[in-house]
# Entry
Amino acid sequence: MNRYSFLVAVLLATVASCKQDEKPLTKQEALDFAKKVEISIGRRDAKLLDEAIDEKAFFKKMHLESGSDSRSFQAGLKKGMKMGTKIVEYQELRKREGPTPPLQAIR
# Structure
């Protein structure tokens, strides 16, 4: 589960950078959150990880210009930010097809 720990660490850094007014996470809070994510992914429940990033704050922090290109870019990012779903899909694929499916199969 070390891959999940790394993923959660990156996620926490992203989330922390989006919320400027809140106090920084403590090591224990990060560990508690990582454990919750590990348990939810183990149960094939992607919701916790999918909803961990505040999308509005994330996009506001990016200072994107308005327009159709920006909206299209944001839509693509929203779909790609569903990391919990991607992990669960990958686990299901591995379960069906064996230990090493091609990466393009999960896209």
Summary: Residues 2-106 form one domain.
